[in-house]
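User: I would dearly like some help making sense of a protein record. This is the protein in question:
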Amino acid sequence: QVQLVESGGGLVQAGGSLRLSCAASGRTLGAYAAGWFRQAPGKEREIVAALSWSGGNTLYVDSVKGRFTISRDNAKNTVYLQMNSLKPEDTAVYYCAGNLRNTISGSLRTYDYWGQGTQVTVSS
């Protein structure tokens, strides 16, 4: 069984920064693409960023470009989301996900494994 565990969420003031981590454990996943999604109250879950296994291909939603950076350390089985210049509209539960086909995608359906989520709250 594969587990993805997010950490690093919390409460921050607008303009601040947070770094989320997603650690994979359990059965070896092999080369997988990783994605970060978020879901705000009353809204659908949406892609934030995605990254291929090699790190050579990335995807960002327009609203976070230039502020968020996705990265990974495959030796540690960990994916990160560095979030800078946070805005109140970034408030959501953030989820990491793994895609075993190693394809960059913004579609929830293409991801095989999900973490439990971590809350990010940005105050104005």
